[in-house]
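#struct-pred
JK: can someone run the complex with nicotinamide-adenine-dinucleotide? inputs below
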Amino acid sequence: KTVPVNIEHHAYKVYLDKGLRFRLGELLKNSLDEQPSSIFIVTDSTVAPLYLEDVLNGLPDDLNVTTVTIDSGEQSKSFKEYEYLLTEALKAGLDRKSVLIALGGGVVGDIAGFVAATYMRGIRFIQMPTTLLAQDSSVGGKVAINHPLGKNMIGAFQQPEAVYYDIEMLATLPEKEWRSGFAEVFKHGLILNEAFYQWLNEHVQQLPIHDQYMNELLARSIAIKAEVVSKDEREQGIRAYLNLGHTLGHAIESVSGYGTLTHGEAVVIGIVFAMKISEKHYQTDLKISDFVDWVESLGYETNIPSNLDRSKLLEAMKKDKKTEAGSIRMVLLKKVGEASVEKIDEKLILSILNEQ
Ligand code: NAD
Ligand code: ZN
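RT: done, structure tokens with the ligand placed:
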């Protein structure tokens, strides 16, 4: 099965199937107009022992392949690691016809994609996501590393040539990472597709998600992401909806220190927060308690950790990339399936922060 991503001047496909990792050579033939002069695979220290060999076995013997493994975890999205990857790429003699393969979760996809965007002003790259979260991050071409002063602050738009999503690789994913990724799945329903949200609500009662639903779940979730980024590649409009829950979510991640909660777990607390602000702002009823019951049954926290200083969270929220001239802009829900971006008064934010 494939999901098309119809970005202007750069259409590509997301391949979704079991066992794709064994078929890289054949897949590259399909996806690339011009065959690669060499291949540069970037992966991490958790994924490499699990899947790298399978991927290498699927490549033809006469292809020049270099593999680089970075430490797993968010701290690898750094300048230091970025420079290291560029050094290895130069040493390997990559040229403009080379193709970079990102084999891993969002961390590998983001940093390897940024290498692809900047090495010799840009070379082609392929995403091979290995986490549930990466159903989101591997599609749409946002690539970045972190600056000590802010997450994802240094980056580019670089669309991949294709995405190969071998869902068999999710079998080894820890439950916490399922929770992180599933948040970005139902977020897609909440902002744009009520029917998808209801379907998830009905079928997903536990994590990891039952195998029988995975194909449909991923195809629908990725199709929503693909539609958003093809209408608005550079985030001038609806792409901003993807940030639902992220204004507070990112603040929680940065104030609590990355790693305490996963990204998706922090985003869910941010979604509940955004729902509360939405109810006040639009004078509407979003049935927040039903949402909270569902996600808590899946193991998510919905309250802001009590040890986090509320005024520090507010300060962190003001540093968000969506901030314009100091005022906080948030993605809100008019109803389930319909999002909008609004400027929100600091006093309201602080009072809900103190409540949650
Ligand atoms: P991650 O890449 O750190 O992966 C999570 C953990 O799972 C890591 O320890 C990793 O080694 C391990 N892992 C990966 N695949 C595995 C597998 N198949 N089996 C067992 N373990 C496996 O994190 P993530 O959640 O995939 O991605 C988070 C990153 O994605 C963040 O840096 C975030 O900023 C970024 N992101 C980017 C976008 C975008 O549009 N570019 C969107 C959302 C998130
Ligand atoms: Zn996210």
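RT: quick notes.
The first helix runs from residue 24 to 31.
The pocket of zinc ion (ligand 2) is lined by residues 184, 246, 263, 267 (CB under 6 Å).
JK: thanks, will look after standup
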